[in-house]
Fold this sequence. Notes:
By secondary structure, the chain is an alpha+beta fold. The chain has one domain (25-185): Muramoyl-pentapeptide Carboxypeptidase, domain 2, CATH 3.30.1380.20. 48% of the residues lie in helices and 13% in strands. The protein has six helices and four strands; from the N terminus they run H-H-H-E-E-H-H-E-E-H. The chain is globular, with a radius of gyration of 18 Å. One of its GO terms (cellular component) is TRAPPIII protein complex.
Amino acid sequence: xxxxxxxxxxxxxxxxxxxxxxxxxxxxxxxxxxxxxxxxxxxxxxxxxxxxxxxxxxxxxxxxxxxxxxxxxxxxxxxxxxxxxxxxxxxxxxxxxxxxxxxxxxxxxxxxxxxxxxxxxxxxxxxxxxxxxxxxxxxxxxxxxxxxxxxxxxxxxxxxxxxxxxxxxxxxxxxxxxxxxxxxxx
Length: 186
């Protein structure tokens, strides 16, 4: 006789309930393979970073869909600041097991925000050759952030920079700022 008790498969578990089930060594190996794959198909650092960002965007799109399918009690954010806090905290915890270090708003541009990570996991295990000194593999994370924001209705361009560790500069479309102001006026 077979038992009729149902077990929840790891596929159905909410992402927020998951344990860090993937080892750091496995993550490092997979990410280094992604970097090598992109490097073998690139002729410049800019092209390599663009390819990393594109792969990150694919990951971000799938991750967002997966998150909202598994997290049945979650709702999609409509306010800009709430969405940025979702990225800084919830998304970062799902991806890296901890929140990003800081979220800042640019003083001189209402469209620009910064997500700061002192020690980006994707840069931790990559040895950058001297001839590629400006390479920042965190462009992969920037692609994830850009896809999550854009697919959530907050179109933005996200770039990774070496500043205070790794800083992701998020520049939103004017339409996002206008919509957010109209929601504040309600």
